[in-house]
């Protein structure tokens, strides 16, 4: 009669160790994929929101500004870094929607305030875009699209209040190709949100794309490559 040999304790421990390592590697790989998807989603949503913000600034004749805020508690009960656009009210009286003036747009009462802390300053706000922990999107903070024209100004929380009639000031405040960069602590290359200074139209490009890295001049996007080269 043939006897079946069982596993020894050492063999069982070795097998368990191998299985544990394989499970660990699978979890790490899955977390990496999920993290990459969150980075992709946030990047696309920021670009889409920039297009929407420009459109609203033109159609409503109100400035629309981006803000990035830390430690915001959302519906999941957790704190996140979030970005969103805010359509700012104009005029000295926040309760009078038609009280519009070039020197009071946005309202002087709302300078240096976000609409999360001062809701009365906004006619409308965009959805909160959760910025994953591996992503830095602070460069888009205080990007503002001017009322009526949709022209962009950069690092101007006041959206050039009182200076909307000064073309030279507006041109000088426009973002450059490399102004708005999204950086990642993962293995992902940074992305650049390129905002046209005259029209406010934007596009988002990855710095590891063929257009940025190729040596073929016929396929290379010189503006993107130059923007990606800026630290």
UniProtKB/TrEMBL annotation:
Superkingdom, natural source: Bacteria
Coiled coil: none
Pfam families: N_methyl
NCBIfam families: IV_pilin_GFxxxE (TIGR02532)
Identification of the protein by name: Type II secretion system protein
Species of origin: Corallococcus interemptor
Taxonomy of the source species: Bacteria, Pseudomonadati, Myxococcota, Myxococcia, Myxococcales
């Amino acid at each position: 009669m043939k006897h079946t040999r069982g596993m020894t304790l050492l063999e069982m421990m070795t097998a368990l160790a191998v299985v544990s390592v394989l499970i660990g590697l699978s979890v790490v790989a899955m977390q990496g994929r999920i993290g990459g998807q969150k980075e992709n989603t946030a990047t696309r949503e920021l670009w889409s929101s920039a297009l929407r913000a420009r459109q609203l600034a033109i159609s409503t004749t109100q400035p629309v500004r981006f803000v990035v805020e830390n430690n915001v508690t959302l519906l999941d009960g957790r704190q996140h870094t979030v970005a969103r656009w805010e359509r700012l009210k104009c005029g000295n009286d926040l309760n009078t929607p038609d009280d519009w003036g070039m020197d009071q747009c946005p309202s002087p009462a709302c300078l240096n305030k976000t609409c999360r802390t001062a809701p009365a300053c906004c006619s409308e706000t965009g959805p909160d875009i959760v910025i994953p922990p591996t992503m830095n999107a602070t460069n888009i903070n205080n990007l503002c699209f001017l009322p009526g024209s949709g022209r962009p100004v950069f690092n101007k929380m006041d959206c050039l209040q009182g200076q909307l009639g000064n073309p030279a000031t507006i041109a000088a405040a426009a973002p450059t190709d490399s102004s708005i960069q999204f950086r990642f602590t993962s293995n992902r290359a940074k992305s650049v949100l390129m905002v046209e200074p005259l029209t406010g139209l934007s596009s988002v490009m990855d710095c590891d794309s063929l257009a940025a890295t190729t040596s073929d001049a016929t396929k290379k996007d010189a503006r993107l490559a130059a923007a990606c080269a800026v630290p």
